[in-house]
Input
Amino acid sequence: MKTVILIAMWMAMALCTHLFAQDTIHNSKIVQLKKTKEEIVVSEKNKLKKEVEKINQQLIDGEITKEKAIMLKEAAANKRALNIENQLTIIDNKIALLIRNGEAYEEVEERNKIEKEIEIFGFKINGNNSNKKEVYDRRTNESFVIAFGLNNVLTEGTSLEDSDYRIGGSRFFEMGIVWKTRIFEKSNFARVLYGISYQSNGLKPTGNRYLVDKEGQTVLEEFRVGLDKSKFRVDHLVVPLYLEFGPSKFIETPEKIRYRIHKKFRIGVGGYAGLNISTRQKLKYIEEGEKVKEKIKMDYNTSNFVYGLGGYLGFGDMSLYAKYDMSPLFKNAVVKQNNISLGVRFDL
Output
């Protein structure tokens, strides 16, 4: 129970930190815009000063009359005053939109106009194409997902607190591409997510132990000398499939309609299925005065086909994330073990 409470506190602190950071960024944008107003005034005044100096020099050189110099100075002063007024009005409107909508209006417009290109696993995300006509109602969007956190196994007949693997030292990492499609034509409350992800699940045995294959059974044994590091890792390539629910902001212009879920709560439930692409164990120790590093690649009787359940709950681009492998970690094991992960997920 103590372990569960500590994990829950860690997750809650991570979410609070993210929410606080978003609010800090929001306020810093307003401060920066106000600073920009001051910079505009200083810049225009400096430009006016240079123009007046140039006019005075023309007067001294006899290129223009005194009356002409006065007229040019008045015109320059009026131009700079209008420049200041127009630019400050634009900044004030941006500040008003930021306060009212919670995010800078120009950021929403930039997301519509500028599409960044990211290439991962040979796929292009948001590839910019200036010749491509913008879709009026885009029901499918893509994003890059990163998740990481704590990892362990649930062993049949054993609680998590009595796990053979370290709670804090065992971690997981996940990254991938997902496509998100709106299910209903006039509502974005329900979305289906699908894509491809790389999952890496790490386990660090407790004590001075490592994993060995004994007649088709993968078991933990005491190592012959003191271990500085003992880490077991399994990598998967999976296809995730989730149903996501949550509110969104409807934006309509003459050119397009969009549903924005930025700074909105979301919940996702679903699962994944795929293949085991790599299994390895890393050992570090000192034997006979020499530092030894071993990287052992073998299947360790791990399941070739993996599948499981997952879910997330969050706000904005950050969510609390959990996944559970329904397929056993080691096939044909006498005692069934299933991988479980708890962490944070970012949809970028």
The longest helix spans residues 2-60. The mean pLDDT is 84. The radius of gyration is 30 Å. Helices lie at 2-60, 66-101, 105-113.
